Amino acid sequence: MARVVVDVMLKPEILDPQGQAVQRALPRLGFEGISDVRQGKRFELEVDGPVDDAALARIHDLAESFLANTVIEDFTVKVESEDVVVGAAK
């Protein structure tokens, strides 16, 4: 079993009111030196079987059509962990 992570973030040119609210609150909470905050979404997908190129392509299509609004958001897909079976028969 493997975990694939899809991170979705607003495109840089899109205003981020939630990120701005957090950034404005930080100095009041004693956190100095943070010049910008952007808010995003993280999806963790547990995948049965190996994560090969075909599986990654399917997950990319899923992210593009369902998890992200590609008009205003960018996304990345990455394999975070994959169980390795040693000595498994093929």
Highlighted features:
elongated; disordered C terminus; 90 residues
Taking strands numbered 1, 2, ... along the chain, how are they ordered across the largest sheet?
Answer: 2-1-3
The shape, in one word, is elongated
Major β-sheet annotation: 3 strands, antiparallel
Instruction: Provide the residue-averaged pLDDT.
Output: 91
Series of H and E elements = EHEHE
Using only CA atoms, what is the Rg? 18 Å
Strand content: 25-35%
Q: Percent of residues in helical segments?
A: 25-40%
- Helix and strand content put the structural class at alpha+beta
Number of strands: 3
CA(first)-CA(last) distance? 16 Å
Given as residue ranges, the uncertain stretches (5+ residues, pLDDT < 50) are 84-90
Total of helices: 2
